[in-house]
Amino acid sequence: MVGKAFWEHDLLGKIGTHLIFFALTTILLLKIKDGKQFQRLRKALLFGSVVIIGFVWGGYLCPTTAVQNIFGKWDTAFLILFIIPVVISVFFGRVFCSTVCPFGALSELVYIAKAKLKIPRSIETGLIWVKYGLLAFQVIRMVGGASVNDSLTPFQSLFRWDDWGLNWGLSFAFLGLSVVTFRPFCRFLCPYGALLALASRFRPFRFREQNGCVHCNLCAKHCPTRAINDQLQVNEECINCGLCIQACRKDSWAYSKSQQKTKQAKPRDWESDNPDPKNSRFDKEEGS
Fold first, then answer.
1. Which of 39, 78, 121, 257 has the fewest beta carbons under 10 Å from its own?
2. What spatial distance separates the first Cα and last Cα of the chain, rounded to whole Å?
């Protein structure tokens, strides 16, 4: 029988809240195809995450210490809270990073695209790998019995209103950096985000081109995490922000399990044998 210690620190309520946000975000990804509507609803979820998971629940999961905590809290409900985002990432991608994580949500809400700091692509690519190094470093330290200080998590003190030392300095620094850089901590330094990225590498559901795509690459140009390459393949750096949907002018970019193609009717025999230039169907195809 599970005792009270298993659900310590209000873990049952935190798990329930996370599941609600996961469900709402997954429905948003699967059902909303209009880019502007998607962004309006997603922004509401971002605000909700900051208020409820951030200020009410004190910022769970802590992205810096989540990996280390699993070593010490594996026999509590924290294991469930830790595993849920990983399992969801395997199938649907980084849903947790998209709207559930209050740290990433706050960072994105203060971002001003027009004030964007231009970082050379080569430097940005190098910075992306830092979080994977930090993940490996954490695991090695934990195996050796060491731990990581949660004061290194930006916005933690803001959500919990404590630790008036180093963390407040980090929080203000990353708040300022987040204004001109899209989610700097999430993209470059978050070890838990690195774990979810690895888990999402072979996800079946992702943003992808659909029938009608003209390869204008607007989706890639508007992707704030550089998750879309020139061949329009979406990698694990995607946080399911959906800005690619809004950028697409052909409505040919969507979150789905596979590329959706519309079936084209076969031409009738007399049309295929004798393509008459005066035929309306022929004209329509030539003009498209």
1. 121
2. 67
Query: What's phi and psi for 28, nearest 5 deg?
Result: -60, -45
The pTM is what?
0.86
- CA-CA distances (angstroms) from residue 135 to 114, 148, 206? 32, 11, 24
pLDDT in tens, 220-246: 999 999 999 999 999 999 999 999 999
Distance CA 55, CA 50 (A): 7
Residue 230 burial class via C-beta count within 10 angstroms: exposed 0-12, middle 13-18, buried 19 and up? exposed
User: Which secondary-structure segment (H or E) carries 52?
Assistant: none
- The per-residue pLDDT for range 36-78, each reduced to its tens digit, is 999 999 999 999 999 999 999 999 888 988 888 888 888 899 9
Closest CA to 243 of 46, 18, 23, 20: 46
Instruction: Give the start-to-end residue ranges of the domains of the chain.
Output: 4-256
Residue with the two structure tokens 């969801």: 88
